[in-house]
Amino acid sequence: MAEAEARGRRARGGGGAARRAERSSVVVETAKYIERNIPNYEILSEEALEIIEHNAETILEEIGVNFVNNPAALDRWRDAGADVQGERVRLPRGLARELIKTAPSQYTQHARNPDRNVVIGGKSLVLAPVYGPPFVRDLDGGRRYATIEDFRKFVKLGQMSKWLHHSGGTVCEPTDVAVNKRHLDMLHAHMTLSDKPFMGSVTEPSRAQDSVEMCEILFGKEFVQENTVMTSLVNINSPMTFDDVMMGALEVYAANNQACIVSPFIVGGAMAPVSVMGTLTQVLAEVMAGIAYSQLVRKGAPVIFGAFVTSIDMNSGAPTFGTPEAAQITYGAGQLARRLNLPYRSAGSFCGSKLPDAQAAYETANTLNVGLQSGVNFMLHACGWLEGGLVSSFEKYVMDADQLGALHHMARGVAIDENAQAMDAIREVGPGGHYLGCAHTQANFKNAFWRSDLLDYKPFEAWSEEGGRDTQVLAAARVRKLLDTYQQPYLDPAISEALSDYVARKKASMPDSFT
Amino acid sequence: MAEAEARGRRARGGGGAARRAERSSVVVETAKYIERNIPNYEILSEEALEIIEHNAETILEEIGVNFVNNPAALDRWRDAGADVQGERVRLPRGLARELIKTAPSQYTQHARNPDRNVVIGGKSLVLAPVYGPPFVRDLDGGRRYATIEDFRKFVKLGQMSKWLHHSGGTVCEPTDVAVNKRHLDMLHAHMTLSDKPFMGSVTEPSRAQDSVEMCEILFGKEFVQENTVMTSLVNINSPMTFDDVMMGALEVYAANNQACIVSPFIVGGAMAPVSVMGTLTQVLAEVMAGIAYSQLVRKGAPVIFGAFVTSIDMNSGAPTFGTPEAAQITYGAGQLARRLNLPYRSAGSFCGSKLPDAQAAYETANTLNVGLQSGVNFMLHACGWLEGGLVSSFEKYVMDADQLGALHHMARGVAIDENAQAMDAIREVGPGGHYLGCAHTQANFKNAFWRSDLLDYKPFEAWSEEGGRDTQVLAAARVRKLLDTYQQPYLDPAISEALSDYVARKKASMPDSFT
């Protein structure tokens, strides 16, 4: 297991942060991001991949994509050689693929604690929590609108979660703060309550700019211009529509060398055709157009090939999660991303269930495993997602976060050295014996098998005497424990004050808006 | 979706069964066994596989295996060229591999309804329910010792479950029937309450013989000698021990051309080394010895390469399920089985949880998906397993059985024809539109996405008004519905009577024994 260790590098954010953290009493372990030592699952044949790539170019050339309310984008496209009619942009075959070549195949997102830096791309897998729900749920309080206090609790849980590498972004929508100001409180929470990397705001270009400026306070202005310190989520309005709000945010981030996930948001059957091949074709065309555009803004800007895909229940129109078709699309999109040499974002703790029950877990497990095997490099929503993304669940957050440990162990692959072969143990034990006490077991058991920090492994009688608790009840106890032992990572008081001042000043500069 | 269809073949078991079933009011759908159109996941390199195969031969040659209380087996081995010392049998390098060559790479297990016949091997995946638990659990009655009435209910659920291809064997232990007689009642239930294929008894060679004789009544004596009508579970006492009870059953079945799964039963760290490579090596050696022995009994007897593997929690000694190490072993064993050209059995609805809650579902989903991708041909325990195999759960049975539908859809693979490419739909809808009403969606939606028959897809408000039911509660309702609509498949009354007579006569011939 590759835990983050003090690597002797100077801590930013005031210096000495790492040293002070070491002196503290509670050790908050964070695993290093996953580096896969297992193969990807390749569900599509070469023939299928070539058909998709050919058809995606046909979409870009003959149908085109819309860039809405964005004259500057249309100018950029015209200059690059696209055919622009009104807001419709048609790309000559090969143009997008050519432009994409300047996007890096991987990049490092820096955290204020350099031990928490993550590499996104190649064989890496970085795990970040749920993003976007307006509601929260917990066992005691039920389902309710999310507040900034809930938000802060989730950031603390993320900081305390060993298998999470990233603090995420909108872990829930703090609906008690004005819409035009809540990004400030959210960023402030990520920056002060966690030392893991985080995401910037995308709900207005001006809020993306605020995110950059707050990062300049946290990391230093020069550092931000030279390094990527945010990875933010830019959704495409599928089918084939790029709106000015999201593209405006992307323009700010790309210009500042900050990373964006360019991600179609697709419920198959509604925003894309009701077939795996059709959906993959549209996804590829959309991502190619979006990422090509990012490179028109700034060559070399870090970007991620995103694919949020799920299917629809044609009886009710509800999105459904953890389905085999979504899995097939996720595997296929990974193959397409690798052929473009781009980092890949997909999968997550998706489920449609209203409760953190068996349905939630089936659907989530189906998707987490697909995420690992499809070569995902950045998994947003890796824990805490409930009710089709309407709810951030405290209990499900820690349940899923625990399961993420299994992905780490799976990704280690199979050691084949002499110790792993264990022939001495097999000789020692022989027919009819047992391995519990043998030398090989004693030497290897601690690191041999993944062990949950949450699930119940007790005999029936012991479990029964302790109240016969189900997973949700065990998870509620774990939430309390993690919050009770939470320890705020050290931050230079001058930086902390400067961040607070920035937030206060920005908030005072405009009236509240709740739309 | 490949539902079983009337294929115009003459129904056995009295003739006309299929015709009568068609006339009945409730249509009980059963999906055809899965034929994979997706790749297997190959976690081990060629180098790793060769090391394992080399080391397994070393085990057989230098350490050997024990055949306990079985002089006839020792004679067979001696005749075949093995080195026999006491009960220890050592096989010259290459002998087992040579003997295994006569085992078929796939076989058909016949059901009394020929539409339910299954092919085991190659790209097929046949799904059978949980096997062995002494307890049952349901929402109303809690956890209790299983009875023959519970057993019959499970057989009925299996008959009614669309995605189950096989009625299984000891779906729970009917503890209210004498140990020496319960196999008769169990077989009678499978034969009369279901028309799917089933398993024979292995708890005594004489009970295996009874199983064959009851099959001769059901299928006809000649038919049984010419065809495989049972697949039974023969466990190896790992490490490397073959006891006379299980081997005695195997001898009866092999002599009668009936199939056996030859399966190490391994909790890693206890019955095998605490490493993936070590466990795989031992599993391979054990299976090779067991299958080679089956071919000494009768060349060409159908057999399955089995691997029941899980890991241990080294803190408590409890077996743990759905773990990444068990997954790696399951993938690897699949590769080894394919290299021996043998059908493969592994995976199942494994979990350690006491309740059909989120833990149960995470662990089960982790394992079911691995089963599909590791190339399993026969999945025992595919539904209903709870509490480490101590409990057959009614609710979990239908929950898991529902998830098996997702495996069917996943296994279909990705269609790449023109209709699947959906370029007409993408042109028709264009940027900013939606696909819900387009011609391609209308033509394809019914079969496009897998849909659960159990899970909740309702909006929060509707779900809430209906009582806010979790998966377990929804499952309890489905159990009732399936049992209420259960319809017994037609069986020739003469055969039915002959089976009952056989059971009555056998029972009367011996006193009850509860040990």
UniProtKB/TrEMBL annotation, chains A, B:
InterPro entries xrefs: MttB-like_sf, MTTB_MeTrfase
Record EC number: 2.1.1.-
A Pfam short name: MTTB
Keywords associated with the record: Methyltransferase, Transferase
GO molecular function, one term: methyltransferase activity
Example GO BP: methylation
EC class: transferase
Region described as Disordered: spans on this chain: 1-21
Superkingdom field: Bacteria
Family statement drawn from the similarity comment of this UniProt entry: Belongs to the trimethylamine methyltransferase family.
Protein name, as recorded: Methyltransferase
